[in-house]
Amino acid sequence: MSVDSLLTAAPAKPTAAFTQLTPIHDASTAHGWWRSAVIYQIYPRSFRDLNGDGVGDLAGITAELAQLAQLGVDAVWLSPFYRSPQRDAGYDVSDYCDVDPLFGRLADFDALIAEANRLQLRVIADLVPNHCSDQHSAFQAALAAPAQSPERDMFIFRDGRGPEGNEPPNNWQSHFGGPAWTRVVEPDGRPGQWYLHLFDSSQPDFNWDNPAVHAEFERVLRFWLDRGISGFRVDVAHALVKAPGLPDWGGRPDGNSSEGFPGHEAPMFGQPALHDIYRHWRSVLEEYGPDRILCAEANVDPLPRLAQWVRPDEMHQAFNFPYLHAGLDVNRLRHVITDSLVSLDAVGAPSTWVLSNHDVVRHASRFGYEGQGPRDGDGIGPDDAQPDLNRGRKRAAAATMFMLGLPGGAYLYQGEELGLPDSTSIPAAMRQDPTFARTGGARIGRDGCRVPLPWRGAEPNAGFGHGLDPWLPQPESWPALARDQQHADPASHLNLYREMLAVRATRRLGEGSLAWVEDYCSDSSLAYLNGDTLVLLNVGDQSLPLPEGEVILRSSAAGMTDPLGSGESIWLTIS
Length: 575
What we know:
Helix content: 25-40%
Distance between the termini: 29 Å
Number of helices: 15
Strand content: 5-15%
Number of strands: 19
Shape: globular
């Protein structure tokens, strides 16, 4: 059945409790830990600073892994910790097979893996194959070599257009603002070729038409697999291969469509040859056993097209950006969830769900606005209209409860279990995101969601570290939101997350089914059954009477039998 027909189909047979159900997805019997896993993203430089230099490190992660095991997650995903000049917080890699001294040594990584194994946590690493740092030895060799040389063929160098090649080779724009091309000065001092960088000028794109690039990244995969990594989250997985001839793009020059997702015809995204790359990588991982995985950060639309990335011989998972961007619009949520499950069921893959990550405003802040935030999600500055944080944290808890009841895998971003909002008061002089610099401050960037975590409220820097000040300043509210403060409060955000994850695991919701409960689906509420668990979200102004059933958990501190208020979710057992 097509997605459109499911959205308009007549309801299926009722249960004893409800008159109208629309089944969408059957419970899964397929094997694979990732199919229902809750994976926790760690942004290393902001997680925990053990050596006192103001930046988080691998030893700090190892020291706090037990806290994540107690939270109830299945795996952790580490944002880049490789050698890097840190122009883009580690997504500009200068050596893919070493740990940046900022974070420690390879021995610290090995200790982290050993502790994770002890705690039965899997570890996934970020892999950045679209581009590297301009300090990478291969790019430095390319700069020193002449045009058309093997060294330059590792990257995308082209002659310029116009008189004397003074204009970029095409009209593509960087995601961080400005042109996607930078002209080099040749070894003899003359202006020379241009190189492509879809992101910062310090991040040249690799040339994936060159077999030598393929060989290099297979070496990188094996290096970390040999050290015990459980898989890779593949950064910008949709962008490695570019269309032949690098044609101008008639849509937005950065490849984005008006909806915020890459246009399906953009020449810098979603090229067919990508699938051969990931089929080969899948075969490499399978040499190490059935439990190593690939997850695509692939901005690909529509969802049926994204399903092509998670066919049985390609990626295991793909991030669900349409879900993240659906917000609390219940009609949009219903469409995205239905579309996701139907499209991915067609290729035998699980869906994933996510509300926050290191690239977006935290959902405790996004949901603090009535409608869209002041910059369409591109950071919040001190002079912008500020979110209502009480409302935002309440809605964030409800949204997370609704998400964790869904079948499939889920991703959490560090600090969301504490209900942390974005920091909106970072001074311009302390901002680190290259987006802010490249746009002259027109775009605030992502620093607000990357502020170092609060661990212990009474300690310096809220327990993040005991030496230098954190690399980004922490808000004044951080000590009160610290993990130790919330641990002692049964009604805290942290303890709600622990309860949700425990119930999700016990009731095996990640492996479950989904049917829309039409009795409670409206323009202001949304409800589904997963097995015998009813999940209900209310975003309207009016409270909803509770259905008959035993209340398992609710997202607010209201009484278990009280009507479901605005901005709340609830889980009930239905007989």
